[in-house]
C-alpha cells in the first residue's frame, strides 16, 4: 500500500476512535457531575420543645427532577431543581394529618441551558402549566421517637399533579427534627407518559429514560 493510502486508513481509524471515545470522555470527565440526591441533614439530635400543630415550607426547601439520559451510548443523570417551593403541613402530636406542596415549574433549572429551554417549553409547557403539586391523602405517623429527635422513615401516599394530570403515588420519605424546625426529604417515582409527557429523543445523540424521580427537600418551620 502507498503511504497516501496508509495515511487515509490511519485517519479513518482515528476518526472512528474519536467518534466512540468522545462521548465517553465527555460523560466521564467533562460533563458536570450530577448533584447528589436531596436529603435531610443530621438534625439537632434533640427535641427543644413540643411539636407545633402547623408548619410552613420556607427557605432551604428545594424540589426538582432526576432522570437518566443516554448520550451517544454513555449514561448520565440530568438533574433540575428550584427553591421556589411552598407548602403547609398540619400535625397532631407525631402524626401528620395533612400536607400540601406546590412547586413553581417555570423556575426549575439544570446545568444545561439548552435542556432547560426544552424542559420549560415544549416538554412541560410551563406558561400553561406553571405549577406541580403534591397532596397527602392519609395520615402519616412519625412515631413517638420522632418527638425525641430520632429521624423517622415512613411511606407516604398522596396525589401528584403534573401538567394538570393527577396520579396517586406512594414513596418513602425521611423526616428529622432540627431544633424547632423539621426537615423532610424523599423521591417520588414517575413514569412520564402517565402525566402526558413523551420522553424526548434526538436521533442517536440523546435519549431520555421513560421513568424518573421527583426529588424534594422541605425545610418546615412552625407557622406563625
From TrEMBL:
Q: Highest taxon of the source?
A: Bacteria
Please give the InterPro entries that the UniProt record associates with this protein: Lipid/polyisoprenoid-bd_YceI, TTHA0802/YceI-like_sf
Provide the Lipid/polyisoprenoid-binding YceI-like domain boundaries. Answer: 54-221
Q: Which family does it belong to?
A: Belongs to the UPF0312 family.
Task: Please give the name of this protein.
Answer: YceI family protein
| Natural source organism | Pseudonocardia nematodicida
What does UniProt list as this organism's lineage?
Answer: Bacteria, Bacillati, Actinomycetota, Actinomycetes, Pseudonocardiales
Amino acid at each position: 500500500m502507498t503511504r497516501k493510502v496508509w495515511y487515509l486508513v490511519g485517519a479513518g481509524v482515528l476518526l472512528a476512535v474519536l467518534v466512540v471515545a468522545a462521548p465517553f470522555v465527555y460523560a466521564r470527565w467533562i460533563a458536570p457531575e450530577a448533584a447528589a440526591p436531596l436529603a435531610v441533614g443530621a438534625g439537632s439530635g434533640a427535641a427543644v420543645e413540643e411539636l407545633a400543630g402547623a408548619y410552613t415550607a420556607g427557605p432551604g426547601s428545594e424540589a426538582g427532577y432526576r432522570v437518566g439520559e443516554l448520550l451517544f451510548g454513555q449514561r448520565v443523570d440530568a438533574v433540575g431543581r428550584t427553591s421556589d417551593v411552598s407548602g403547609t403541613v398540619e400535625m397532631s402530636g407525631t402524626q401528620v394529618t395533612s400536607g400540601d406542596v406546590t412547586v413553581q415549574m417555570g423556575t426549575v433549572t439544570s446545568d444545561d441551558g439548552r435542556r432547560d429551554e426544552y424542559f420549560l417549553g415544549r416538554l412541560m409547557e410551563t406558561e400553561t402549566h406553571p405549577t406541580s403539586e403534591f397532596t397527602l391523602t392519609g395520615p402519616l405517623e412519625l412515631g413517638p421517637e420522632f418527638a425525641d429527635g430520632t429521624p423517622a422513615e415512613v411511606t407516604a401516599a398522596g396525589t401528584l399533579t403534573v401538567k394538570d394530570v393527577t396520579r396517586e403515588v406512594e414513596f418513602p420519605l425521611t423526616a428529622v427534627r432540627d431544633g424547632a424546625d423539621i426537615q423532610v426529604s424523599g423521591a417520588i417515582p414517575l413514569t412520564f407518559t402517565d402525566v402526558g409527557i413523551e420522553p424526548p429523543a434526538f436521533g442517536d445523540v440523546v435519549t431520555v429514560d421513560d421513568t424518573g424521580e421527583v426529588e424534594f427537600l422541605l425545610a418546615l418551620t412552625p407557622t406563625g
